[in-house]
Specification:
Ribosomal Protein L22, Chain A; two-stranded antiparallel sheet; 5 helices; 5 strands
Length: about 120
């Protein structure tokens, strides 16, 4: 089992991405953008999903390497609203190469910070 954790300052994250739809589309799937934009405070939800990407790469032990992209890690929700990860592209290949077959994610946020913990096993 491998674990990764990441903490994002929501104000700094917003300053980097606000008004930059091109960057948002590079980092997030259309489904993630639609979900977050539908929330009362979209930036905390986007920041939590970005933290999940960072945490997944930390759990993998590679950081952002090779041909990986931010969209290789997507946060989805089950019918009850619990978050889960969908790994694709170079991240999915690296996870498979490491012999890991399952992932789990936990997200939390306040008005100022978002955090994610990812387990790969």
């Amino acid at each position: 089992m491998q674990v990764g954790i990441d903490l994002v300052d929501v104000a700094a994250f917003r300053a980097r991405f606000d008004g930059r739809d091109d960057l948002l589309r590079e980092a997030f799937s259309e489904a993630e953008l639609a979900y977050c934009r539908g929330q009362y405070r979209p930036w905390i939800h986007l920041a939590a999903r970005f933290a999940a990407r960072e945490a997944a790469l930390k759990a993998l032990g590679t950081g952002w390497a090779g041909t990986m992209t931010w969209r290789d890690v997507e946060v989805t929700r089950d019918p009850a609203g619990a978050p889960s990860l969908v790994l694709g592209g170079a991240v999915a290949l690296a996870v498979a190469k490491a012999g890991l077959t399952r992932s789990t994610v936990s997200l939390s946020h306040t008005e100022t910070h978002a955090i994610a913990v990812v387990l790969l096993c």
